[in-house]
């Protein structure tokens, strides 16, 4: 996760430097023609980009794993039997559904941004956007998620991002 943060901050600083450079450039002497279309620009805050990056990386990992299992059906990958590949794809889809359910559950607690990562039955990691880092919040998140899933998890990590 540190590599992701460093990469994000590097790209963000590069965009910032380029933005300042283009803003400071003198305007061209030619006048803009009246028929040029305007450009809609949406600027997202760093928190939104951070959570979107986490979600994109997670989706890529899931898709890569499923593609690897599909290669078994194509005969390209002989590491697994077809039955094992089918079970692995089914389990991965259950994990994806569980992650989505956890994110919805935590967002229903009032958090604007949430990221959930599930690995098997004994590991859940939840990252939420919150300016307060309170132990009661951690307890509330853990309780709500474990109640929703109807199981206890041996490793449950809650991280706060500001």
Task: Tag the structure with descriptive keywords.
single chain; 162 residues; mainly alpha; Helix Hairpins; 3-stranded mixed sheet; 4 helices
Molecular structure report:
The model has no long low-confidence stretch (mean pLDDT 85). The protein has helices spanning 2-24, 46-74, 82-108, 135-149; strands at 114-118, 123-129, 155-161. The chain has a three-stranded mixed sheet with strand order 1-2-3, with helices on both faces. Strand 1 and strand 2 (123-129) form a beta hairpin. It is mainly α and 162 residues long. The protein has a single domain, classed as Helix Hairpins (Orthogonal Bundle), CATH 1.10.287.
Strand content: 5-15%
Distance between the termini: 16 Å
Major sheet details:
3 strands, mixed
Strands of the widest sheet, in order across it, are 1-2-3
| Strand runs, count | 3
The CATH fourth-level homologous superfamily:
Stage III sporulation protein AH-like
State the CATH architecture: Orthogonal Bundle
Q: Overall pLDDT, averaged?
A: 85
Q: CATH class, please?
A: Mainly Alpha
Tally the structural domains: 1
- Provide the gyration radius in Å: 22 Å
Could you say what the CATH topology is called? Helix Hairpins
Structural class: mainly alpha
What is the count of helical runs? 4
Secondary-structure element order, N to C: HHHEEHE
Shape: flat
**What is the percent of helical residues?**
55-70%
Low-confidence stretches: none
Oligomer state equals: single chain
């Amino acid at each position: 996760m540190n590599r992701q943060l460093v990469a994000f901050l590097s790209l963000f600083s590069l965009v910032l430097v380029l933005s300042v450079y283009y803003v400071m450039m003198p305007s061209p002497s030619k006048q803009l023609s009246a028929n040029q279309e305007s450009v809609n620009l949406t600027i997202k805050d760093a928190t939104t980009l951070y959570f979107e990056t986490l979600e994109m990386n997670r989706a890529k990992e899931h898709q890569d794993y499923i593609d690897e299992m599909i290669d078994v059906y194509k005969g390209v990958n002989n590491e697994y039997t077809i039955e094992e590949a089918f079970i692995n794809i089914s389990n991965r889809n259950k994990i994806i559904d569980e992650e989505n359910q956890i994110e919805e559950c935590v967002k229903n607690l009032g958090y604007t941004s949430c990221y959930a990562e599930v690995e098997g039955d004994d590991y859940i990691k939840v990252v939420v956007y919150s300016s307060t880092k309170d132990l009661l919040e951690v307890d509330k998140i853990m309780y709500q998620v474990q109640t929703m899933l109807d199981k206890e998890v041996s490793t449950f990590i809650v991280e706060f991002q500001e």
